[in-house]
Amino acid sequence: MKLLKNFLPFLIGIPILWGIQLISPPHIAIILVNVGVNIILAVSLNVVNGFTGQFSIGHAGFMAAGAYTTAKITLALQDTLLPGLSPWLSTQTIFLMALVAGMLLSGTMGLLVGMPSLRLRGDYLAIVTLGFNEIIRVFIENIRWLGGATGLSGVPPYTTLVWVGLGAIATISMARRLVSSTHGRALLAIREDEIAAEAMGVNTTKYKIRAFVISSAFAGLGGGLLGHYILLVTPKTFTFIKSMEVVGMVVLGGMGSISGSIISATLLTVLLEGLRGLDQYRMVMYALLLVILMLTRPTGLFGTHEIWDVLSRYFPKRKAVQKA
Amino acid sequence: MKSVIKTEPVLEGKEVTMQFGGLKAVSHFNLVMRPNELVGMIGPNGAGKTTVFNMITGVYTPTSGEIFLDGKPIHGLKPHRICHQGIARTFQNIRLFKELTALDNVRIACHTHSSSQWWQALLLTSGHFAEETRITRHAEEFLNVLGLSHRRDHLAKNLPYGEQRRLEIARALATQPKLLCLDEPAAGMNTSEKVALMELIRKIRDDFDLTILLIEHDMRLVMGVSERLLVLDHGVTISEGTPEMVRRDPKVIEAYLGLEEAVK
Questions:
Q1: Which strands sit side by side in the sheet containing B11-20, from one edge to the other?
Q2: What residues of A are in contact with residue B116 (Cβ under 8 Å)?
C-alpha cells in the first residue's frame, strides 16, 4: 500500500505517456519533449527561487553538468550489453543509471557552488550563479575530452516521450512532497523571514544548500534527457540565455507555485514554437508578451497558489484523491 | 514561586559587553535567572535592551563576556543552535512568516524537534506521515493555548495586530524552550489588552514551567507582572531588584524623568 502510493504517479503515468507517444506525429512529439524538459527545469528551479526565496540564475550550468555526464556514460557503454537482459532492457537500464549519475554529479556541483555562495543574499547570489554558469561553459569549451566548442555528437537517441514524462512526474512529485513536509516548510520560512527562521531553530545555511543541491540534481536530469533527444551536447545549449529562459518560466508562473511553473513552462514552450512563423520578430514578440504579463500580473500567473488547492476548494471530495 | 529553593541558574550572563565601532551598546552586563523566574527588563529607548536579547539569542556575538544556559556556554553559537539549546524569542517588530498560515507558522517552530529526515518526505515513508501528524497536532495545541484556534488557516499577515503578537508567542513556545525572551510583547496594544496579555504571560510561565525574560516600556505593567526588574540605561545596569525597590531608586527616576524631576 505504502509502496503503491509512492509510485502511483509513475504507474498511472507510464500507460498515458505511452499512448501519447504512439499517437503524436514527430513534429508534435518534439514540442512535447521540450515541454517536458522545461517543466523539469522550471519546477526544479522553483525549489530554490520560489520556495526558498533565493535568486539563482545559473540553472543551465547544472543542466550542462548533467547532460555531459549522462552523454559520456551512454557513449562509452553504447555497445555494451548488460548480462541477462534483453538489448532493449539493457539500454534502458544503462540510460537510467547514466541519468542518475548525471543527477549525482550536478547535485555535487550544486553543493560546491552552494556552500560558499549561499551565504550571500539576493543580487550577490544571482551574480555568483550567473558567473558559475559561464565558468562551466567556458571550461567545457576548452576541454577536448568533452568535445570542446563543438561538443559531443552521436549521442544515442535514448530519450523518448515516456522518459521525459517520467522525469517530469518525478520532479513534480519531489517538489510537492517536499513543500508539504516539515522540511519544505523550513524552506518557506527562509523565504518569508530568514532571521525569524533562524531564531525558530532552522539552520538556514544548511537548508538553502540542501534546496540548491536538490534543484541542481534535477536540472542535471533535464540536461541529460535533452541531450539524448537532440542527440548533441554542446556548450551552446547551456548558455546564460537558457538559464534566463527558465527563470522567466518560474517568474511568469509564480514564484513558489509548482502548478504555475508547469503551466508557464508549457505555455512558453508552445508559444515559442507557434511564433516560429514570425522569423526574426519571434524573440521580440516573446519578450513583449513577458513584459505585458509582468505589468498586469507582477506575482506571476498563480502567485504562490497551487491549482490543486483551488480545485479542491471547488471539489472538496476530490481532495483525498488529489493528494498523491 | 518565590519560595522555590535557589537552584542552578537557567541563564547566566557574566560581564557581557557589546561594542559597535565606537559605541558601547551594552557594557559589563550581568544577569542571573533562576528557574521559573519572570524578570522584566526596562529602560529608556536606546538603553540596549534589545541588544541584550540579540546577544542571548545569538544574533550578535558579544564583544566580550560569557553567557551560559544551564551551565553550558552559548555565546558565539548561531541562533538556530541556541534555539535547539532551549531559548526562544519574539521580536519587537513582529517577524511572522507573513504569507503562511497561522498553523504553518507554528509548525515551522516544531521542526526543531522533528525526527523526520528529508528523504523520508520524498519517499513518503510511514514515519514521515506519523511525524507530520504529530507536528500538526502539536502546533494546534499551541494555537489553542494562545486562543488562536479559529485562525488556524488564516494567513499570518491577515491577523489583527494583537493576534499577530500572540501568534509570535505561540510560535516561540512550540520550540519547547526553557527560557522565553519576549521583546515588548505589549507594544501597540491598549491598556485592557495589555493587562490581558500580562495575565496570559504569567499563565504560560506556570503552565509550561518556563523562565521568562521580558522587555517592556510600560513601567506600571511590567512592575505588576515581574518578580524582579532590571533597569538599563546607556548600556549599563543602573538598578536591579524587586519592583518596589526599583520604583524608589533615584537613579531610575533620573533615567526616566530627567535629573530636574528627580531633584524635586
A1: B23-33, B11-20, B64-69, B72-73
A2: 181-183
Pairing relation of β-strands B11-20 and B23-33? antiparallel
Helix (H) / strand (E) containing B14: strand B11-20
Backbone angles phi, psi at B20, to 5 degrees: -110, 105
Tens-digit pLDDT string for chain B (264 aa): 444 455 788 999 999 999 988 888 898 999 999 999 999 998 888 888 899 999 999 999 999 999 999 989 998 899 999 999 999 999 989 999 999 999 999 999 998 888 888 888 888 888 888 889 999 999 999 999 999 999 999 999 999 988 999 999 999 999 999 999 999 888 888 888 888 888 899 999 999 999 999 998 777 778 888 889 998 888 888 888 888 888 888 888 888 766 554 444
Residue B99 DSSP code: T
So where are chain B's domains? 1-86+177-264, 99-170
Q: How far is B118 from chain A (nearest CA, A)?
A: 6
Q: Chain A contact for B97, CB < 8 A?
A: yes
The answer to whether domain B1-86+177-264 has CATH 3.40.50.40 is no
- Tens of pLDDT, residue by residue over A110-145, are 999 999 888 877 788 889 999 999 999 999 999 889
Asked if the C-beta of B157 comes within 8 angstroms of chain A's C-beta atoms, the answer is no
Structural domain boundaries in chain A:
2-322
Cβ within 8 Å of residue A181, ≥6 positions away: B116, B118, B121, B128, B132
- Would you tell me the crossing angle of helices A87-117 and A204-230 to the nearest 10 degrees? 140
Q: Which tens digit of pLDDT belongs to each residue from A83-92?
A: 888 888 999 9
Which CATH code is given to the segment(s) A2-322? 1.10.3470
Q: Are strands A232-233 and B11-20 parallel, antiparallel or unpaired?
A: unpaired
B88 neighbourhood in chain A, CB within 8 Å: 199-200
Spell out which residues of chain A touch residue B175, defining contact as CB-CB under 8 Å. Answer: 200-201
Are residues A200 and B116, on separate chains, in Cβ contact within 8 Å? no
| DSSP one-letter code for A51 | I
Task: Report the distance separating Cα B114 and Cα B175, nearest Å.
Answer: 10
**Cell numbers for B118:** 528529508
* Residues B54-89 as b or e (16 or more Cβ within 10 Å = b): bbbbbbbebeebebbbeeeebbebebbebbebbbbb
Instruction: Please report which residue ranges of chain A form alpha helices under DSSP H.
Output: 2-23, 26-46, 59-76, 87-117, 123-141, 161-179, 182-192, 194-199, 204-230, 240-253, 258-274, 282-296, 307-314, 319-322
CA-to-CA distance for A307 and B224, rounded, in angstroms?
Answer: 51
* φ/ψ of residue B38, rounded to 5: -120, 105
CA distance A56 to A250: 11
Check B112 against A183: CB less than 8 A apart.
no
In the block, cell 536579547 appears at: B53
**Partners of B31 in the β-ladder:** B13
Sequence-distant (6+) residues with CB within 8 A of A322 are: A308, A311, A312
Determine how many CB atoms are found less than 10 A away from the CB of residue B21: 5
Stated length of chain A: 324
Q: What local confidence, expressed as pLDDT, does residue B166 receive?
A: 92
